[in-house]
Amino acid sequence: MTIPAHRIAFGEHLRDLRQDRGWSSQEAFAHHVGIDRTYISGLERGRRNPTLDVIVKLAQSLDVKPAELLATIE
Amino acid sequence: MTIPAHRIAFGEHLRDLRQDRGWSSQEAFAHHVGIDRTYISGLERGRRNPTLDVIVKLAQSLDVKPAELLATIE
């Protein structure tokens, strides 16, 4: 599967924000958000295609605005 | 169904951007984007939950950055 560039950008930015906010493990962050660790892993690798509802939930969990999560997508 | 506030904000902003960009009808815009008119209508009323792939496609069709589409969500 070819992963679209916007998914790669989203995933890398999500990982950066997670680590910047002190969630060094995907497991701990996933528990904080209330979604499965494998889903977080899939998002960070660009393999999952999150819905708006999920993007908003992730943003709230990271204490950023939802638009910030998409800031690196051209 | 109670529609989440972030979906309402997204839908209203999408409608504003569509009209500002000169797409007065949902039908013409839907054809431009390549998705169904009823889906555009559902998005603008907050009844649909678009994926990241769809958000990026809408943004490209409106000639804005994807983050701009989420700019009004708190």
UniProtKB/TrEMBL annotation, chains A, B:
PROSITE patterns: HTH_CROC1
This protein's UniProt keywords: DNA-binding
Signal peptide: none
Record-linked SUPFAM superfamilies: lambda repressor-like DNA-binding domains
InterPro entries per record: Cro/C1-type_HTH, Lambda_DNA-bd_dom_sf, TransReg_Diox_bact_type
CDD domains on file: HTH_XRE (cd00093)
Lineage: superkingdom: Bacteria
Residue ranges annotated for the HTH cro/C1-type domain, each copy included: 14-69
Annotated protein name in UniProt: HTH cro/C1-type domain-containing protein
